[in-house]
Structure formats: C-alpha cells, structure tokens
What we know:
By secondary structure, this protein is α/β, with parallel strands linked by helices. The protein has 14 helices and 15 strands. The protein has helices at residues 15-18, 51-68, 92-103, 195-205, 221-228, 240-250, 257-271, 279-290, 296-304, 307-311, 320-333, 346-360, 369-389, 391-405; strands at residues 9-12, 27-32, 69-79, 81-83, 89-91, 106-114, 129-136, 173-175, 211-214, 232-237, 275-278, 410-413, 416-419, 429-431, 443-445. The strands form four sheets. An eight-stranded mixed β-sheet has the order 1-10-9-2-3-7-6-8, with helices on both faces. Helix 2 crosses helix 3 (92-103), helix 7 (257-271) crosses helix 12 and helix 13 (369-389) packs across helix 14 (391-405). The longest helix is centred in the C-terminal third of the chain and has 21 residues, at 369-389. It is globular. The protein starts with 8 loop residues before the first strand and ends in a 5-residue tail after the last strand. The structure holds S-adenosylmethionine. Residues 14-15, 33, 35, 42, 45, 189, 191-193, 216, 218-219, 221, 236-239, 242 line the site of S-adenosylmethionine.
Amino acid sequence: MxxxxxxxxxxxxxxxxxFPRVPDNSIRTIHTSPPYNIEKDYKGYNDNxxxxxxxxxxEKVLSExxxxxxxxxxxxxxxxxxxxxxxxxxxxDHLTYHLFxxxxxxxxxxxxxxxxxxxxxxxxxxxKHETILWxxxxxxxxxxxxxxxxxxxxxxxxxxxxxxxxxxxxxxxxEVDRVAFGSNGQTxxxxxFPEEISDRIILSTTDENDVVLDPFSGSGTVCKIAKARGRxxxxxxxxxxxHKESIQRLSLQAxxxxxxxxxxxxxxxxxGAVGTRKFSAIEDKIMNLLSPFSLEPYEDIxxxxxxxxxxxxxxxxxxxxxxxxLWNALEELLPDFGSNKSSKDSVGLISLIDRAYMRAFKxxxxxxxxxxxxCAANWLAxxxxxLARDRKAGWEKILTSIAESExxxxxxxxxxxxxxxxxxxxxxxxxxxxxxxxxxxxxxTQQLFR
Length: 450
Ligand SMILES: C[S@@+](CC[C@H](N)C(=O)[O-])C[C@H]1O[C@@H](n2cnc3c(N)ncnc32)[C@H](O)[C@@H]1O
C-alpha cells in the first residue's frame, strides 16, 4: 500500500485542504454525508452557501473522491433535499447529478434509508427517508466494483426451506432507526449516522486492510466502524468540537473483530468491573475459560451439513433436506446460549463467544441463527489456534494490541492491564503502575489519547 501519513486518523480541517494528502487510487470505499446546505447548526461550519458556491464546493469534493478512489472503488453519497422559503423541496441528488456524470462516476444503485422518528410535518407527509447513491469509479482492469453479500445477509422473518440458511440479501431499502440526538452518549453531533448503515457498506464493499474514507466525518461513525472491522480509515472534520469528540469515541473501539470480541470477553468475564490485572492472571483466567475446548460433538452437524460449503459460497451443493436438518439442529443448540452451563462445556463456550460477539457488534442481532452459530464457532476456533500457537507471547501481544487500540477503555502499565471505563462515555484517566490489583482508588486523571 502507498504510504499515507494520515492513515487511521481523523484529521482536523477543511476536506479540500486535506484531500491532497490522500494518494491517487488508494481508497477502496468512501461513505459520506456532505452538508446539505440547509442552515444546519454545525459547530464551526457555515451550512448556508448560495447555490452556485455550494455546487462549486461539491464538484471539487467529488473530483477529489474520483482521484483518490481505486478503479472500481465505491462512493456512497448520502443525500436529502434543500427547501426554499415556502418549503418546496429540491432533491440534492437531482441538483448534483450532472456533476457526478461530468466526472465519470457510474451510478450502481440507489439505496433508500427508511427511518422512524423525526419531527412530524404539518402541511405534508413527514419525511421518512434519505437516499444513498452508490457511485463507482470505472477502471481499466476492474470495471466491476467489489460486492460481497455474505457478511451482510439478514435474518428472514419466517423459516422456509427455500431460503438461504444464512439469511437473505438485505435489498436496497434499509429500514434502520435514526440515532436520536444524544442517545449514544458519545457525541454532541446533530446528524450521526446509524452504525448499521456504515457497517453494511463497509462489510459488503471492502476487504480487511482496505482504506475507507469519510471526508465529512462528523462524529466519526464511518471511521469507527472501519476500525472495528479491521479496515484502515481516514476522516476529515472541520469542526474542532466534533473532531475532538470523534477521536474520543474511536478510543473506545477495538481494532478488528477478533480484538473486539476478545475485549468483550475481557470486560465481561475477566474483569467484571474497572480494575487492574497482571497479564499472567488474565492468561490463566482465559485459559480456564476457553480450554479444554472441543467442537467434536458438533462436527457432524457443522461439517456434514455442509456449513463449510455454504460459507465458501457453494450454496448449490446443499440439499433442501440438509438445510432443514442443520437449521433445526442449530435452533436446538442456540437456546442453550446464555444458560448456566459450565463454561467448560462446548455449548457454554460458544455461548460465551456468541454473547461477546453480539455485544461487540450489536448490529448483528439481525443475524440468522445459522450465521450466529457460524461466527461464534469460527471465533472460538481462531482463539484456540492463537492460544495453541504461542500461549505466552501470543496473549501478551494480543492484550497489548487491545489496550493500544482501545485507549479510552484500557491502560497498559508494564505487565498489567487496567480497565478504566466500561461505559460508552469517555473518561480520560490513567493508572498508577504501583497500585495493587483490583484497586480502583488509585486512578489519576491524565490524557491518554494519542
Ligand atoms: C452531515 S454531517 C456528517 C455526520 C457523520 N456522517 C456522522 O455520522 O456523524 C457533515 C459534517 O461535515 C462537516 N463539514 C462541513 N464542511 C466541511 C469541510 N469543508 N471539510 C470537512 N468537514 C466539513 C460538518 O462539520 C459536519 O460535522
């Protein structure tokens, strides 16, 4: 990958001034919501330009998007409408369509984000949707943009043997609740994206280690999700307040799914509350929780029912009867998740991982049981192999990675790791390295963020 000096950062400033630091052909996916020019009270930005200036600005931004995307890369451009004095509307995609065309973008899809909530209108129907335009940069070698539906399949409401066991393609009307102002406790931003929307876009159009960009990053939702999914990210934000809050928000987010899941296990099953533990104590506890482990009792169900084949995309090799058998078998297993079974029991272990996985990615509650089981079993296998490969060095490395990528939650001091906050709200504290394990009294305030 070309070296990018602002990789994995949200940079403060005007996106047009920061864009030149992004190399040509380096970004796999851009997901963004530009200002709509509707006099919104963004802290530090004038959202009321005359139309010609607004279009001029948008054209410059689009031109930079085109330059920085890889051929075949995607631009998800979230848009709404402007209103005039009499509240007649002009759809922004209509107003800007010719700019995309002029620059050579190709429109791949038009996604409707249908939401609930919002202020009721008096003189017409209340607005309940926004549009997300999926534009693609054409390329010589790759005329096709990346799209993988598997990780974003959603659970079907009713069981039917004709359905894909792992859920259905979510379609292009996305019903997702808006983020109520102030509801996530992490930001004062007035227009936060639902994480689910970014998650869907990032999972289906990028691979791990690809770079995701949001030139209007606001509260940092796109960057946060990219980080959690093990993608690189770049964000630009002009408001110093939103910039500061978004960096704090990201400090509570582990990098990559494995680290997120492990972090949840640490919080819930090793620590329980804020406190400090030695690496060695954590290793013992985790070894105790996770081993001995055997998927053997479930191998018949998982393997013989062609789960692997399904995951590899060979859905046609699965007979209808096998689907029903596997579906029923998994349904029988899943109710045990969360029961009081011993953690040494395999179902208990998968349950542990499943709950950690769900907590780390609340968005996945829509997953079908087959998908959840697959993910949980998969994570368990990865954890097992990490443990087997190099117990001591492996765990030390993993714990260090967790602490370094979730600085708002953990603090690392020599051979100890401390949890300084379970809550979503960022607390800026660090730990006196000399204090005893489990003590909470010795926390002292200090800047932790990089
Ligand atoms: C619609 S909001 C984005 C919200 C974001 N998607 C989220 O989830 O929080 C647009 C953001 O762009 C920022 N902004 C406006 N003009 C900008 C510019 N020229 N460069 C960088 N950021 C800008 C505003 O401060 C605002 O936070």
